[in-house]
Design goal:
By secondary structure, the protein is mainly alpha-helical. It is built from 13 helices and two strands; from the N terminus they run H-E-E-H-H-H-H-H-H-H-H-H-H-H-H.
């Protein structure tokens, strides 16, 4: 037993060391940094000094309307993006797993390729496609009488969602497809013998069997959605874009740190966002765990 414990500790040690270095220490440092602020002495002609401010930075962040509105943007983004991503990736995976699918590997590669493009490059590509003076897509839409301003207040959120879907749909489709391929084929053959059609087999057999993959993808998507940063940051550079420099909480923290040099406020905003992600992750796992227990009972 001791040898087994030592072996497990040896194998797990690199993970915990890396996790501590890249997660625990930075979050702890951000928490410590959020308790301080920099003030100038005298009439502003003296140097700056770092003073303990307690929870003032948290109060300032929560009291800032821009920071609160950033969470509203994240809520709208999650409500639009997560259902579309899960439904689209799952639908494509089920289609590839069906008996009617042809050239599966070709379509897997074609759908996965956008994920291989770095996020910032993907955002730049779509900014080009969204810009009326440059985009052949927008020009074709206008020629057909269906113009749409992708940088407007109404169009900014769908524009960001579209970029994220383009990047992540194929990636999550591969996860679902791998889970579907792991299903025992004899179970599916038995369902077919019992008279179950393609739709019934997909909904009553396949989906329940890949529930762990669905939960995992949903959890990671929720966490990733809260970290929304690259796509709106690039769209912020678009001509006449409604995406501001504080459009999301991450952008708010970035602006506070590197534009206003208020590192205490930026750290407080980052800690609040991390706490929100932890609470949502806990809620998702508890919700799915409760449903699994109900079904088992």
């Amino acid at each position: 037993m001791k040898a087994r414990t030592r072996a497990a500790a040896t194998l797990l040690a690199p993970f915990f060391l890396l996790f501590t270095a890249v997660m625990v220490v930075p979050i702890g440092y951000a928490g410590w940094l959020s308790l301080f602020t920099e003030k100038q002495s005298g009439l502003g002609f003296g140097g700056t000094e770092t003073v303990f401010s307690g929870l003032d930075n948290y109060t300032a962040a929560l009291g800032d309307r821009a920071f609160r509105e950033g969470f509203g943007v994240l809520l709208g983004y999650c409500l639009l993006y997560i259902p579309l991503l899960l439904a689209g990736a799952l639908g494509l995976a089920l289609l590839l797993d069906s008996a009617l699918a042809r050239a599966r590997r070709l379509f897997q590669l074609a759908l996965f390729l956008p994920h291989a493009v770095p996020g910032i490059i993907a955002a730049l590509i779509w900014v080009y496609l969204y810009t009326p003076q440059l985009s052949p897509v927008v020009q074709a839409m206008e020629a057909g009488g269906t113009g749409f301003d992708f940088f407007s207040p109404e169009g900014s959120l769908p524009s960001v969602v579209n970029i994220a879907l383009w990047e992540w749909l194929g990636y999550n489709m591969v996860i679902f497809y791998a889970a579907l391929q792991a299903i025992d084929r004899s179970v599916l053959e038995a369902a077919t013998v019992d008279g179950a059609g393609a739709w019934r087999t997909a909904l009553a057999i396949k989906l329940p069997l890949i529930r762990p993959s669905l939960v995992m993808v949903a959890l990671f998507t929720v966490i990733g959605s809260l970290q929304l940063f690259t796509e709106p940051l690039i769209l912020n550079k678009g001509t006449g874009s409604a995406v501001t420099s504080t459009w999301t909480p991450n952008m708010y923290a970035y602006t506070a740190a590197f534009d206003r040099n208020d590192y205490g406020l930026a750290a407080a905003a980052a800690v609040l966002l991390a706490l929100t992600a932890a609470l949502l992750s806990f809620a998702v796992t508890r919700l799915t765990g409760a449903r699994r227990k109900e079904q088992a009972a």
